[in-house]
Each structure stands twice: as structure tokens, then as C-alpha cells.
Amino acid sequence: MAIKKQAVNPEDDLGFGNQAVRQRIINRNGSINVKRLGIPFFSTTNTYHRLITMRWPAFWLTVLVAYIVVNVFFASIYLSIGIGNLHGTNDNNVSNPFLNAFFFSAQTLSTVGYGHISPAGVIANWVAAFESMIGLLAFAMATGLLYGRFSRPSAKFVFSDNMLIAPYALTGGRGLMFRLANMRLNVLLDLAIEMTFSFNEVVDGKTIRRFYTLPLERSKVSILTLSWTVVHPLTEDSPLYNITPEDMKNSMATFNILVQAFDDTFSQTVHSRTSYQYDEIVWGAKFTPAFFHDEAGLVHLHLGKISDFEQADLPEIS
Amino acid sequence: MAIKKQAVNPEDDLGFGNQAVRQRIINRNGSINVKRLGIPFFSTTNTYHRLITMRWPAFWLTVLVAYIVVNVFFASIYLSIGIGNLHGTNDNNVSNPFLNAFFFSAQTLSTVGYGHISPAGVIANWVAAFESMIGLLAFAMATGLLYGRFSRPSAKFVFSDNMLIAPYALTGGRGLMFRLANMRLNVLLDLAIEMTFSFNEVVDGKTIRRFYTLPLERSKVSILTLSWTVVHPLTEDSPLYNITPEDMKNSMATFNILVQAFDDTFSQTVHSRTSYQYDEIVWGAKFTPAFFHDEAGLVHLHLGKISDFEQADLPEIS
Amino acid sequence: MAIKKQAVNPEDDLGFGNQAVRQRIINRNGSINVKRLGIPFFSTTNTYHRLITMRWPAFWLTVLVAYIVVNVFFASIYLSIGIGNLHGTNDNNVSNPFLNAFFFSAQTLSTVGYGHISPAGVIANWVAAFESMIGLLAFAMATGLLYGRFSRPSAKFVFSDNMLIAPYALTGGRGLMFRLANMRLNVLLDLAIEMTFSFNEVVDGKTIRRFYTLPLERSKVSILTLSWTVVHPLTEDSPLYNITPEDMKNSMATFNILVQAFDDTFSQTVHSRTSYQYDEIVWGAKFTPAFFHDEAGLVHLHLGKISDFEQADLPEIS
Amino acid sequence: MAIKKQAVNPEDDLGFGNQAVRQRIINRNGSINVKRLGIPFFSTTNTYHRLITMRWPAFWLTVLVAYIVVNVFFASIYLSIGIGNLHGTNDNNVSNPFLNAFFFSAQTLSTVGYGHISPAGVIANWVAAFESMIGLLAFAMATGLLYGRFSRPSAKFVFSDNMLIAPYALTGGRGLMFRLANMRLNVLLDLAIEMTFSFNEVVDGKTIRRFYTLPLERSKVSILTLSWTVVHPLTEDSPLYNITPEDMKNSMATFNILVQAFDDTFSQTVHSRTSYQYDEIVWGAKFTPAFFHDEAGLVHLHLGKISDFEQADLPEIS
User: Fold this and answer.
1) Domain named Potassium channel: which ranges (chains A, B, C, D) (predicted)?
2) Which has more confidence, A305 or B5?
């Protein structure tokens, strides 16, 4: 095994523990590959979390279903009081009493209140007064949820599909490289990247997982205007100096990437994560430019070309 | 008394003052055990603070009571103007004039406005116009409060029930340990922990309270994916090196824990606090694993097992 | 003049410029004593700023006036179309056509829409459709403003009325001290304080203003549970070592205080400012305790006693 | 070429890449001069971004158009169901069935619901119930958008129109200077400035772009109360020590400015950017004061005079 043991610092664990793994901890899309048992399902915060992070179609469906369920609930109440306590249903051209109650409930919950159906009698009036208050509060919650969904800080980076082992001009040797760019319209400032190398190692006959933070050519930029090629130089100091593709496969080598940036549009710190596994590393390749200048001198960055690379000869390792 | 005096730095006070205490300053649930007198009850910020931090049942009750109180108030006004200025009450099947005024008020405040009861005359129309504006603003406030309640940054950690004096493999000696995990669905980054040891000491016949920040094996992790066992190694440098359970009890030893993390879902810094007292320390025990791998290799973390420990022999102190 | 010139670092200017002043730059309540000319009055941000920071009575009055003005505007339009295009005004017991139009407008703007008055004809219907949209948006704005006002991060500290020149036990000499405590219900973490001493100095016959950041016994605490007495020790290194009350008066000595903290309830960084002038310094006094323990051992902090001090003999300066 | 090559650090690239440019990367108003291709147009985040950052007239127009489009959509549905299913249209003095359906739709969407037109029959009632729910949600979205627009953190600085090569008293030599002040009503704390000098250089016959971060006399101030004159001293260490106007023009010299500050009113970090090109540099000039004291001693800062300068003789370069 070519991974240089002395270079590995036990303090470089990122909170992953030292269990041997058969799967990535951080998935390519940034989600975490750990299942937690015992999280209370109905806690307010977790419900809010789910409503904020679910996909839009699921969210709209949830809202629609909730609207119908609440109206069915109140319609049942009006029906049990007696449909005669809703005046005007005779002129509504709806013969089904439940539907009449349902439509009156909808008009009350949404506070549209046409009034062609109206409550009569003490009990129906109390229920309607209560329902309209519920409507107001439900509306308030929907407002909060929609704002929370829209305004949630999020970075969306496009990462290159592969990591490359490429010639690295600055040292005359090799470099481990990947590329990223901003998929959002906002301006990102103060980007910082942390890359961790993790691998299985056999210690005393037991396989454990080791972690090592890889030093980068540059780990910060002040403003991200184009794409950024992140480079870990494969110098003699690197634990990956003379690693081979077979070493990577045998040790289940994984590279975890944590990206942090400041979103200038909304003044929020945003984070992103991804990971590359041994089978996503290309040996002997270099990235091709993803931008060009037009006639006016304006720079165009083509986000679809972030992953493009071409073959390149690697310098020998002494 | 075995607490090593020279190790205690007067600068390690965390803003608690140096009064001898008979109670914890930080409770187990993180609240602060100091009563402040003279805080203005009706200041806007404190009212907002109370409405945001009160429990949900209390909040809903407050909203309901406020709704009824405001409607009673406006109903009284309509009644004093004369119920004859509300048209349509004859068809409402409600004989009590006050209830008729109340229901009309509710329909106005919630802007449902069926119109089967409607204001007539200049004064009733003015009051109704004003009440509907109040309704709009009350609705606006409810929206803000609900959003504020839902979106309030909060970390919810599960801390182990006990702190352990456990064997600590890295030094071959002992360690003071507790364990924590994330109870929320969100991903926590950049966790940092600060542990303070406080105890009573008799100086010149007067009992004062001393504070000491304990160095940790590791005080930061980049990402919390599993549980985290926080360790203060009981080396010779530690003020707790040769402390006994009796020392702890006599000095009312307390360990205050401050946790800080970055919530990746909502891009907010979150804090949590807890404390352990001398009677929550277990001597000679070690934590048992709280996670396991399923057949597919996926890691499962069982939050209900965070507090589980088993007996363990402690190495002797030289 | 006893202020030690060599101790003053020209780099300690806090962005105040070096003009001699006849007034404080930072007022006691934290506002800035500079008038800026040329700020655009009607910019969106400045309007929002004003609506968020104005006092509550002024805010409610603004909302009420806006509501009336918009309704008067739309009432005029309905009137110019012709009151006959509003059906139902005959039964409203209001003889004044303008008032009828006004009340209809209010019912439309607030979306209460009883319907006892309703638009008739194409133009009145268009205007009503437009007005109800305006009503929705105005409501939306009010919601945002109210939430912005409620949730605005703010620290409210009570600062002692005076700064004291007090005996300082730790050095056996004197200290310049003031005291502060938290007036809010929230918990404050990571407090940091910066104290700047500014004074007039005559250089080449011209009076200029000098600034000096004073080192503090402690400039940070992790958590503020009680009151905090901030101390600048008057050691030989201090530019104030042998200053006299006359020196302070003659040089218009001012002490500017910047406080920063983290509000744990709302996860926001909050700031506060204040200043003390030469005539608010008390020579030869010390603060009396502002807290006590009740029988149960619970600590009570009395915010009204933060300013309380008693006479104390000052040690001589060698 | 007088730009001192040895002073240029390849690590000072700010994420701009090293392409020779014919245009600024950062425009005077702070926007970025790079066109990105391949950003998904209809992503939620980018739509939100556009709605938040578009100008106010465009925003109001978008809202108005959306309101009309949705009402036209629902009016068509009511019409296709049959105008006879909307009761009360006969008394509405509107003969066009589409307009009647449109006005009913508007009354439903805005939840004003007068009720002089009301739905009749099962289908019309279902559509109305659904439309009022859509109205509630649309209202909720408008609320979120308006709040997002109002509360978006933003710094608005006025930068001097020109950078000056001015005499610099502190070194007795020259300085490169510009001036800025705060155009907002809020108080700015902890300002930090970063100035980057970029220029074209011919290396091996190929023109590349170099970047160099210029050290400043002062790069931070604690509080911005007046204007701030930012100075890069043209000492021998500066890469600009003996640069000439011709050098600047030939190398397309550009100065990029990044400003960061903490907005005390809304507790948010705000950023601003600008740039100066070679043709915006004035040689041999100095800024004239932009503030004055009135009789009461109050300082007045005149934002309109931030750019004002007068001729000044430059000291010779040895």
C-alpha cells in the first residue's frame, strides 16, 4: 500500500468516526449517507424542516391536501349542526348538502365570504367565526413556509464529473484536480474549500477508516467570477505521492469536498458538499477551457463544459 | 482538596461572577439559573421574545384569547351604537344582540365579510372600516410571529445522561467524557465545544466560586455525521488529575458545556448548552457504540443509545 | 497636560477623523452625532429604514394615515365615476355620497367585501378589482414591515450612569470602570467590548482630536449571566495613568464604548454603543453589588442597581 | 514597463483567471462583466433571484400582469362552465359575459368576495374554492417577495469619481487615493477594504493578466461616521512606485475594490464593489474636505462633495 502512513494525522477525522466503510459518507449530491434512528417525527422543527426542504410538487400537493382535509372537517361540523343553519344553499344550484357545507367552509377558510351562503344560528356562527380565524392562521403559516422556501440560502455549484490526475505546471509534477463553477445568478465571495482524503487501512488485522485533510494549491478566493480549478499538488509531502489506481481501489479511496462561500445577493453564508470515489478519478488528463472571449472582449463561461477534459501525459515520479 | 490550585486561571471566569453557589448557573436543559429584576415587562422586544419562545399550546391559546377579546371589544362598540345599525341580524337566527354584534365583528376582523350582516349608518361604517384594518394588521402580526417561531434557529442535541470517568486509550490514562448527537434533520457543520469546570473553594475563610476551561482532546469537528464523544484527558496538567468523587461533591463541582454549530439547512449559527453536576458523573465506565452497519453497509445511528455505557476498569493514577 | 503622548497611536482612529470636536460623536444612547447631507430621501432602502426604526406610535399613525389616504383616493375615483355605480348605498343609511364611496373603498381595500355595497358597471368593477389587488399588496407590505420591526436584532444594555475611577484590587492601583447588564430576556453569548479614549490636543497651535484604544482587564466573556464590570487598569502603560479631572475637562475627554454580542435566542450578532464624557466620571468610588442570593440559593440580579456606587479611597499614584 | 515584476505574487489572483482582458471584470457599479452560459432559466432560486433584484417598476408591472393573467385564466374557465353558473351578473350593469367572469374571478382571487356575483352549481363552486386558495397562496408569495425585496441587505456607498495620485504627508511621498462614504441611513461598523491592481503583461510573447493586492495605509475602521480616504502609499515596495500614466494605459491598469461592512441596523454583513480604470486616475491632485462644522459644533458631511479635488504638486520620485 503506497499511502504514506506517517503523513496521516489522527486529528484529521472530520467527525466521521473511524469505522471501515463500504459506502460513501457524503454522496455526490452532498447528502449524508447515515441513517439516524430515534429522531422524533412530529417535532415542530423537523416538520418545518421537511416542509421547507421537500420538492415543490410535493409541497403544493401537501398544501392542496391540507386545504381539502380542513374543509372536509369543517363541512362535517356544519352538516352535523344541520344544513338548515346555512342560509342560501337553496339558491346555490348544489343539491348535495355535504358539498354545500364544503363550499361554505372553503369560502370561510379563505375569507372570501361571498355571503350567498351564510351561517344562521348561534352554533353555526361560532363555528364560522372560529374557522375564519383558523383560515387566517393557516394563511399566515403558508406565507411563512413559502418565504422560508424561497429565501433559503443555497449554493448550487456544478462540479466536474471527474477528478483528474493531471500534469501540474507549477511544480513540474502531478496534481489532483477538480473544477467547479457557480450555477446561480448570485455573486459568490470568499470561497473556501476543504478536501479530505479517506481510505481503509488494516491495523492489527482490523480494517479502520483513516482521514487526511489534503493541502491545496489555493484554498480560498475572494470572488468567484469564472470557474475554479482546485489543485492538490502531488508532491513528496502528499500521502498520495506515489499512489496507484489499484491502491485507490483497494483502500476504497474517497475524496470529500466541503465548499463554503458568501452569497453577496442575500448576505448569507452558503455551503456545498460533494465527494469523488476512486472510480471517478481519471489518470493522465487535463481540463480544457470552459470559457471564451467574444469579439467585444466579453468573457463567456460555458457551464456545460466544466467537466470537459483531454488526455495529457503525466510526468514520471522519481 | 485535590483540585490543583495553580492550574486555575482567574481569567477563565465565563461571566458567571465568583459567588459561591448552591445551585447550577446553567441548567441541564440549557436555561440560565439567574433571576433578573427590573426588566420592563411591556417592552416590544420582550413581548416578542415571549411570544416566540412560549410553548405551542400556550401560543395558540394566546392567539385564541386575543381573537375573542378583540371581538368582544368591537361587539361592545357596535352594541353601544345600537344593534339597529347592523342590518340583517333579523335573519341570522340569533336572538342575543351581543352575539349578533360579536359574530359581525368576527366576520369583519377576519375580513371574511359574508355580508348577511352589514353595517348601516356613518358610525357603524367607520367602526367596521377601522376594525377591518385592525384585522389586516393582526393577521400580519400573526404571520410574522408564526414565521418567527418556525424559522427560529435552534439546535437540539441529545447529550448523554452522564459524564464518565473512563479509560482513555490515547494517553493510557483516564478521560472525562460525555457524548452528544444531533436530534434534528439538518446537517451541522463546524461544531465547536467549550467545557468549563467550576467549583467552590475556600479562600481566606470565604467560599468563592472558581472557573477553569478544560482543554479537550478535540474541540472542533468539520461535520457531525455520527455521535461525538467529547474527551477531557485527565493528564497531570489537568486540575482534575487526582480528584476523587468526594472532592467533587464537597466543592459542588459542575461542568458547563457550550456547543456552537453551523446549521447547513438554514445557514445559521446555532448554540446549545448543558451542564453536569458531581452526582451525574459515573466513575469507571465507558460508552457502548450507538451505531451499527446494516447488510448494505449503511451506517445507522441510534439516538436512543447515546447515554448507554458499561463498566470499565480505570487505570491507576501514579 | 498629563496625557502621555507617546502612548497615542495615530492608527487608533476609529473612523472619526481627527477634527477637534465640541460635541460627542457617539451619544449616550448610541446614536451618531454627524449630520449627513445629500442622502436621497425617497430611496427604497432609506424609506424601509425609516419605517423599521421609527417609534411604534409614529408607525401606527403612519399606517392609519396611509389607510385613510388610499381610501380617500379611491373614494374620489368611485365618486367621479358616479355614485350610482355603487349599488346598495341607498340601504346603507349614509346620505353623504363621498362617505358611501369611502366605506365601499375600505371594504374593498381590506378585502372584507360585505357586498351590501357592490360595484356595478365596467369601470367601477375594474377599479374595485384593481383596488383589491392594491389591498393585498399593502397587506403584504404591512406584514413585512411588522415582521421586520419585531424581529430586528437589537441589544438593550443598561450601562451604569457613571464611569468610576476606583481602587483596583488586582494591580493594587486604580482602574477606570463602568458596568453593564442585559435588559432583554434573551441570552447573550460571546460579548466583546472595545473602549476608545478620545481627547483634544494642541499640535503646532492647532487643536486636533486624538484617539486611543484602551486595553481592558478583560474584553470578552463567553456568556453574560450577571452584570459585567469592565475595567481599564490605570497602570503606568495607560495614557491616563496620572490624568487629573482638570486634564479631562480641558481636553474634552470622551470614552466611546462599542459592545458586540451574539443573541442566542435569534442567532444574530447584536451591537450597542455608548459614551461617557469627562463630566460623567466619578473620582474615588466603587460599584456596590447589584445581585443577591435568596434563601433557596437562587441568584437575583437587580437591573435598577447597576449604577449604584459608594465612595472609596483611591490609592496614591507614585 | 515600470511595473516591478518581482513584486507580483501569482497567488494574488482573486478568482479572475489570468486571461488578458479588453474590458473590466468588475464594473464601476459593482456588477460582474462575465456572461455565464448554461444557467437554468426556470430554476426556483434563479426566478426568486430575478424577482428580488429586478427594479421596482419592473416588479410592480410583473405583479400586475400576473394578476391579470391569472384572472383571465379563471375567467375563461368560468365562461366555459357557462356564465349562467355565476348568479347576480344581471344586476352588475356589465353586459360582456367575459368581463363579468373576470370581475368575479378578481373578487375571488383577492378574497374580497362581495357576493353580488356568486358561484352556483357544483363545478363553479369547486373552481371558486380552488381559486380562492390560489389567491391566498399568491398573496403569501407576494408577501414573501416584498419582504425579501425590502429587507435585502445592501450597502450603498458613494465612491469618488476618480482615484488620485496625491501627495501623501505620512511618507513624504505619493499615495494612490480614493474616497467613499455611506449613502444609507444605517450605521456601518467594521469596514474592511481590499484593493487589487490588475494589468496586462507580455510573458514569452503572450499577453496575460496579472493581479496584485495593494497594501493600504489602513484597511479596516471600526465605525464609519464620516468619509474615508483609502490610501495605498506609493513607497519603493509598491509595484506602482515609478509607474507613469502611459504604463497604466498600455497595461490596461485596473483597480478593483471590494468593501465589506457590518450593517448595525439590520445586523447583516454587506458588501460593495467598484473599480477604477487607468483613465479614471488623476495625477497631481488632492481631495478637498467634504464636511464642515456648524456654529453649534455639529459635524455636517456633504455626500455630494465626496468626489471634489484640487490640483496639488507631487513630490519627485528619487
Assistant:
1) 69-146
2) A305
Question: Which of A211, A215, A144 has the alpha carbon at shortest distance from A175?
Answer: A215
pLDDT at res. D3: 52
pLDDT at A202: 81
Q: pLDDT grade, residue D20 (50/70/90)?
A: low
Task: Flag the least confident range among A190-199, B39-48, B67-76, B308-317.
Answer: B39-48
The CATH number for A5-35+154-311, chosen from 3.40.640.10, 2.60.40.1400, 2.160.10.10, 2.60.40.3080, is 2.60.40.1400
Q: Which of residues 119-178 of B touch A (CB under 8 A)?
A: 139, 142-143, 146-147, 149-151, 154, 156
What ipTM describes this predicted complex?
0.81
Give dist(CA B275, CA B175) in Å, integer.
17
Which ranges of D111-263 would DSSP assign to H, the alpha helix?
Answer: 122-151, 245-250
pLDDT for the residue numbered A13: 47
Domain B5-35+155-311, what fold? Immunoglobulin-like (2.60.40)
pLDDT 10s digits, B255-280 = 999 999 988 877 788 888 899 999 99
Q: What is the pLDDT of residue A10?
A: 42
pLDDT at B85: 93
Mark yes or no for CB contact A300/D37 under 8 Å. yes
**Over chain B, what is the mean pLDDT?**
86
B114 and D115 in contact by Cβ < 8 A? yes
Contact in structure between B168 and A166 (CB atoms under 8 Å): no
Give the residue on A whose Cα is nearest the Cα of D106. Answer: A112
Query: pLDDT at position A212, please?
Result: 84
Q: Give contacts of D41 with chain A, Cβ < 8 Å.
A: none
Q: Indicate the residue type of D195.
A: M
Contact flag A142-D137 (C-beta cutoff 8 Å): yes
C-alpha cell at B213: 476551561
CA atoms within 13 A on the CB side of B138: 23
Chain C residues in contact with A111 (beta carbon < 8 A): 111
Sign of the Cα pseudo-torsion (B260, B264, B269, B271, in order) = negative
Cell numbers for D62, please give them.
Answer: 410583473
Least Cα separation, residue A211 to chain B (angstroms)? 12
Q: Using an 8 Å CB-CB cutoff, list chain C residues near D75.
A: none
The 3-state DSSP class for residue C89 equals helix
Neighbours of B283 (CB within 10 A): 12
Query: What chain B residue is nearest to D140 in terms of C-alpha separation?
Result: B143
Indicate which of A110, A117, A143, A268 best probes the interface with C, i.e. most C CBs within 10 Å of its own CB: A143
Residues of D in contact with C33 (CB under 8 A): 298-299
- Written out in words, the top-level CATH class of the domain with range A44-151 is mainly alpha
Q: Name the residue with cell 503583461.
A: D201
Q: How do the residues of chain A divide into helix, strand and coil, expressed in percent and rounded to 5?
A: 35, 30, 35
pLDDT in tens, D197-213: 988 888 777 777 788 88
Residue B27 main-chain phi, psi, to 5 deg:
-75, 170
Interface of D with A in 36-65 (CB under 8 A): 36-40, 43-46, 48-50, 52-53
What is the amino acid identity at position D210?
R
Q: What is the pLDDT of residue D294?
A: 80
pLDDT digits (tens, 9 = 90+) for D296-314: 777 788 889 999 999 999 9
Q: What residue segments make up the domains of chain A, in order of their start?
A: 5-35+154-311, 44-151
Shortest CA gap D98–chain B (Å): 25
Q: Taking 80 as the threshold, does the pLDDT of residue D230 lie above it?
A: yes
Any idea what DSSP says for residue B311? E
Partner-chain contact A94 D141, CB within 8 Å: no
CB contact under 8 A, A36 and B181: yes
Low-confidence ranges of chain C (pLDDT < 50): 1-2, 5-14
A259 to chain B, any CB pair closer than 8 A? The answer is no
